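Appendix B: complex inputs.
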Amino acid sequence: MTRQMTGAKMVVQALKDQGVDVVFGYPGGAVLPIYDEIFQQNDIRHILVRHEQGAVHAAEGYARSTGKPGVALVTSGPGATNAVTGLTDALMDSIPIIVLSGQVPTFLIGSDGFQEADTVGITRPCTKHNWLVKDPERLAETIHEGFHVATSGRPGPVLIDIPKDVQFATGAYKEKTKGPKSHYAPQMKGDMDTITELVEAMEKAKRPVFYTGGGVINSGPAASQLLRELVEATGFPITSTLMGLGAYPASGDKWLGMLGMHGLYEANMAMHDCDLLINIGARFDDRITGRIDAFSPGSRKAHIDIDPSSINKVIHTDMPIVGDVAHVLEDMLNVWKSRGRKTDRDNLAKWWKKIDTWRSVNCLAFRQEGKVIKPQYAIQRLEELTKGHDRYISTEVGQHQMWAAQYMGFEAPNRWMTSGGLGTMGYGFPASIGTQVAHPESLVINVAGEASWLMNMQEMGTAVQYRLPVKQFILNNERLGMVRQWQELLHGERYSQSWSEALPDFVKLAEAFGAKGIQVSDPDKLDDAIMEMVEHPGPVIVDCLVEKHENCFPMIPSGKAHNEMLLGEAETQGAIDPKDSVLV
Amino acid sequence: MSALKIKKGSNSHSAYNLRPTFSDVEESHTLAVLVENEPGVLARVIGLFSGRGYNIESLTVAEVDHTGKLSRITLVTSGTPQVIEQIKAQLGRIVPVHEVHDLTVEGRAVERELALFKVSGKGDARIEALRLAEIFRANVVDSTLESFVFEITGTPEKIDAFAELMTPLGLLEVARTGVAALSRGVGLAVGLK
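Resulting structure:
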């Protein structure tokens, strides 16, 4: 059955058929026909953001917290270019989002028309795929294909650029078809021979470790379930990247904590000393590996990834398995069970003993003394007072992000929204809005630094307009904390441009937007401030004034190996080799 | 010619060799990449090479299946074995890319390039240019009283050799197409069925 309709109507119809219930967007000249269609229906809710970057990050927050694709709608030219940071962020962290952009009419393309930009050209390297639709007959199928590409294989962002005359033109609406209609069909099942080889290696391993990443979350809840089953059954220790937190519960006794540059001592030491490293859905990012030639030197390495290009890109892999994490974990479990559920228990017990000595270093220890709140203490109290809630956490980027990853515990996947690969300051606030829209009854907290938060502070308007009770928990050190830390370690304590001398009064700022503001600077009043934030039914900004010169530890300095971690202030003198200072 | 039914990376002669031999020696490889002929597809391939810092030594592209709207890109690139594997995997990630084949690995390939040479000269030099062209089986496709345009096909090495000989004889201009390549025999046919 074909139905004739305008391109603008097709857009709305296709979104409905794809099960979209909310779109984050900002109108403009080149998308007016689509906005007119949105006006005339009630199935799809539109959230008006205050800047297109906010729309894309909100769509990311929605996608990360639900596992469903997020949708953003922006106009041509500046609307589309403002979406670029969000698209790049989603590409780096493999988040499925669909950005629909308006474009000048086809007959004006190339004429440097008003609000014209070469959107598909600009976004080509920051999307998984993008399309310029010049023919209304192809619009519906392109949107359906867009959802297919964004959500299949390694997820990612797509952009569909729709000229204004195509939105007005009439054509036949193509229904969403079941089954594969596209040649794009990534491999889901892993190679059984390699899976068997890996299981054999697991049976013999003396010092194994699971190193998991965002791929477990992206593979869906079944993958996290299977991972938990595999970890409990084998008794192997498990660590995770920033992106993978929550796939295995932080309360689990096999949990070593996050690994990497600001990862836990026990996690990094286990990575360095293991004899079998099983990478599940992670990509050997440079925040994880540290010095490549000293990375986990004595281990055989298995790598499970749905993207063949991740394998052998950075670290040589002995057992490469291309496939979806859930599919491969299921096969691994079946093979391991059918071979008699074997592990080297004696050596595993010795390995755990060693891990316990590393754990006893207590690398996250800090002292809360005096009248100034330590940022670690603020996060620790936030964790303690909110962990019982149905809770989602987003973050901005910097020290506060690492402290949140270190001191907060995630028990389930899709509860942790953070910008890992791109490191986008300004991500967390709009992401918390997208998350709150998806989970209106839940407690959504954005752990922020004041500098990051200011980058997208205009979204306060969005939070207030839609009565989204997002909690903005700002660790205010009046510094770009991570920049300051690197300047201290690498640039002779010359703090070039890393503080602001004109910060707003965050309480008044909240009130100016019609929200609640709370300031706290006394450690004894911190708990009350947090509880006041949690119990307030609307959006809240907490301006938590913290120690200004706190550094984030543990830290693997640039160009160092996992077993050369810095644990505290005393060890930082000359920690970074001048030749390694080019590394970021 | 019918539309093609190809599943990326799943055929028995997949280009995804996931267990590379590690070496620092740079190699030159000829890749055949079958892509959907849609707008911007060449920009995606070229953008991948510039964005990730890989080399392109030669690149040719044309639609080879008009029904199925498929183009074949023949690429000559160089790098260590790890880099070559990464290039193939990255090419495979591009959504409109259907197949990636490393002709250098999969079987001895036939490689040919076409070039046009404009040579200007008088007297002995002009005669010598014509004589050498004959040896190289180059055709004269244009002639004036003081110039020839030669058309030559062959391996890139043969064309390099011809260029070297023509230079002292009054070489004015060269146009080269870049390499087109096919694997030998029927076993590894890419694309059309």
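The first helix of chain A runs from residue 7 to 17.
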